[in-house]
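To fix ideas, we reproduce below one chain and its tokenised fold.
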Amino acid sequence: MPAPRTLLLTGAAGGLGTLMRSLLPEYGYALRLFDVRPIEDEPGAITADLTDTEALREAVRGVDAVLHLAGISLEAPFEKILKSNIEGTYRLYEAARQEGVPRIVFASSNHAVGFTPVPGVGDAPIPVDTPRRPDTFYGLSKSFGEDLAQLYWDKHGLETVSVRIGSCFPEPTSVRMLSLWMSPADGARLFHAALTAEGVGHTVVYGSSANTRLWWDLTSARALGYDPQDDSEPYAGKLLAEQGEADPRDPARHHLGGTFLTDPPLWPY
């Protein structure tokens, strides 16, 4: 599949969307931007809610693929998660089906498997087919998105790569992130691979850099052509000195979901 020329980027005003707005054009994409919030200095951006079916139909019309980053990215009351992350994602898929868009790259999350214990020293990394164990309503919405993607592939032939993103920031800000961090440059590499690999059907991958302390298996991501270049280890000394190693008495430090497992969830995560 050749690199799509026109890419709809939902959630373009968010943190990850803003990073990808600057990086993805280097791969040859012409971006069509979509967000519920206005985007400064982008007069052509579409400002609309994911539940606005007419705006979504117009947004997806004629694009080669969609990178779906929009939605609530932290825990929230179920009613808000339902409207934005569950109903909104469904409406995006339905608009894409109606307009014949061939592929979506869906921003899933490690919180879809947040209650999975992290591997110990010498243990095998967590496989991508580990049972889903969402840690929050937010994680539940990402599990729904993965199942929705499978349904639309099986029933309608709409391809999806679901990327269980760890933490994509310019640099890691916690000890936990040393194992889940995805540099923005590696994020662009992974999204580009997910947009261009052939015959993906519905593929689930983990999204992180090639971290020395990596917890999960990147085999399915590498099979798409993803070649991560970065590692969180240069940040380890400073973060460990500031925050210390995981407390063995704290279960939130020993599961993928981290402080999302606490009630209420705590940030930074």
Summary: DSSP finds eight helices and seven strands in the chain. The longest helix spans residues 78-99. The mean pLDDT is 94. The chain has one domain: 6-261.
